[in-house]
Design goal:
two-stranded antiparallel sheet; 349 residues; 11 helices; 10 strands
Length: 349
């Protein structure tokens, strides 16, 4: 469908039921998969990993907490300069994570939310064709260089975290039927790296140094389960966290995902800025997604939506549409507007 939709992840309702009853019921006919809204602590994306997983790890020390507000602790930072910072304790060469399959919390949340999804789908609230979408930050995005003041600590943590994420993935695959499931990797640091926007890293080699995690993790996902990737410009401190001149880095990274996954990729989401120039969209002509369906994150600033869509189609004739990112940092009282914007996009207006 020319105007099919994708929901990236977070939708800041209080419960999974509200996500499915509101966005799912209204947009379901236009969706292939639906996330649970990443309700609760997950709405702030990787911050949940930082304070629920890393902050209590006995092999790590907290270097900085988010600043209190009116004397009250804050689990979620206001911007990148306020984020959690960590260091690996002296004498630790590799940080490992116990309770495999459950330690990170993604499998537990997915299993609970799938029960609600299946109940509402069986009741007819959600269309029968929908799959349940589990969105998880990649290893590199969950543990970006900026949260480790000592660069040597990054390698000490990432391998153990990747093993823990692989265990979560296996639990999800074991507990949720393949025909009902879609897995999406959320990639923000990878996107920044593709533009040379990660301090200490050169743009050259960015694609290759981000692919190892997916050669391992995506290869674990059976072909019967749908697989997707979400590229992100970031929303911490406001969207976009960084604004590249064009989509060249996103296209290079998307092509890398399709090549490295070791199995077919079903979708790739690429955000687009509110730009009205050919130069920004022209790199889309170089996409080689190897059969993956492309969703462009064009649902924003709707007064210029049609212009952006027309420009994108000059270089990529067939794509679906989505918001630029998950909506976890959108004020809840704006959700009705966001929903209406998606309905307008689905109608082709």
């Amino acid at each position: 469908m020319a105007n099919d939709l994708h929901l990236v992840g977070s939708i800041p309702y209080d419960t999974v039921e509200e996500v499915f009853n509101n966005f799912g019921a209204a947009l379901g006919p236009h969706l292939t998969t639906i996330p649970d809204g990443e309700v609760g602590p997950r709405k702030h994306w990787i911050s949940r990993v930082h304070y629920q997983v890393l902050a209590g790890h006995p092999q790590l020390e907290i270097v900085r907490f988010p600043k209190p507000v009116d004397g009250v602790e804050q689990q979620f930072p206001q911007n990148a300069g306020d984020s959690w910072l960590f260091k690996v304790k002296e004498g630790i060469d590799q940080v490992r994570f116990g309770d495999p399959g459950w330690r990170l919390g993604y499998a537990r949340d997915a299993i609970y939310s799938y029960f609600v999804f299946k109940t509402l789908r069986d009741a007819g609230t959600l269309p029968g064709h929908l799959r349940f979408q589990v969105s998880m930050p990649s290893v590199i995005s969950a543990l970006p260089p900026r949260i480790f003041p000592n660069p040597e600590d990054i390698a000490k943590v990432r391998q153990g975290y990747q093993e823990a994420l692989a265990a979560e993935l296996r639990t999800i695959i074991d507990k949720i039927p393949a025909e009902d499931l879609g897995i999406q990797w959320d990639c923000s640091t990878e996107m920044q790296d593709s533009y040379g926007a990660v301090p200490g890293y050169k743009r050259d080699g960015a694609v290759e140094r981000n692919m190892g995690q997916f050669r391992t993790l995506s290869a674990l996902i059976p072909k019967e389960i749908m697989l997707g990737y979400h590229l992100c410009f970031g929303t911490l401190g406001g969207w976009p966290r960084f604004a590249p001149d064009d989509l060249s880095g996103a296209v290079e990274m998307a092509n890398g995902f399709a090549e490295a996954s070791g199995r077919p990729v079903d979708w790739i989401h690429i955000p687009v800025l509110d730009r009205g120039d050919d130069a920004f969209f022209a790199p889309l002509a170089n996409l080689d997604p190897q059969g993956a369906h492309i969703y462009l994150g064009a649902i924003h600033h709707m007064e210029r939506y049609d212009e952006r869509i027309a420009l994108a189609r000059k270089y990529l004739p067939d794509f679906g549409v989505a918001a630029y990112c998950g909506m976890g940092r959108v004020p809840p009282d704006e959700l009705s507007t966001v929903l209406n914007d998606h309905l307008k996009a689905a109608a082709g207006t």
